[in-house]
Amino acid sequence: MQNSENIAAPETSRQSDLDTTSAKLNPALEFFLNEIGERKEIAQLLVQRRTPGADDFEFRHLEDEKRAESELETVLLDQAQFYLSFNDQGAFRPIKGAPDMRHGWRLLAKNAHELELALQAVYPGLIADYYAVHQMDPIPVTSYDEFAGRQTGMYRNAKNLKGDRAAQAVQTACGPSFCMKRRYWTVPGLDTDSAEVKSEVPCLEPCAVMLEWGRKVVRMDQIADKCVESGAEPMTWTLTPDEAKSLQAAIDIARKQTDPAGRTADVASPLNPRRLEWVSQTLNHLLEKGAMRE
Ligand code: SF4
User: Fold this and answer.
1) Domain boundaries, the chain
2) Is 173 a pocket residue for ligand 1 (Cβ < 6 Å)?
3) Whether the predicted model's global pTM rises above the 0.85 cut
């Protein structure tokens, strides 16, 4: 997999090891620099020039815009990737596009190359992907089928995700409550994302969390099929509308929990937020069909 949302590892480089001054600017970085102007909001990030017209930047959470510098922790550039791998509750963030960026920090970049490193820590791959969607025609996206079809090893099963199940799986994995990146890649039966609903941070191909979830949905269906084949009693339940509403209410409570068992990348956990979302969407679908209206 190549998606920049691959699970982040702790940053180990030292500040002094970073060559931030000698390299020539690449076109993608130059393009992004021009896009910033004096300030730019992108997803949950606010980038501001500290001195008008100069390549001297400050990064912070957009919701911290009005907070005094003294209230914020200044994070060193070489620690930013690790620091931003955890949310306000201290839970690991498997994807940096998730809308749970921690608050209370600022990050300084004193030239264009440090800006590039800082952006890589906040939204990995942003500069190259942003350049691709604004300057390349066609935009180099990969469809789910194409991407999953290339997978081998533990992800090879993801290619068996098809039809309505694929659309629902993508809707569940990539919805705005889970990820702010704007999905450009396609899956039949589901529109791509708009910047209004998500953000300007592009997603050009499925990430590891999406593939893991796709593989899990295939596995769930395979287990159900095996139960039928083995002659086991089918697990069916005709829900009344009130039962469905009670289940929805219970799911809503579970979604607010911060139990580590429900962490976002652990799709084996019944409390995984995407699994809860999947069940919730299925219940909504049943209720909307009218079969369960009171
Ligand atoms: S594949 Fe989906 S969840 Fe993963 S980064 Fe892209 S939009 Fe976000």
Assistant:
1) 15-135, 141-232
2) yes
3) yes
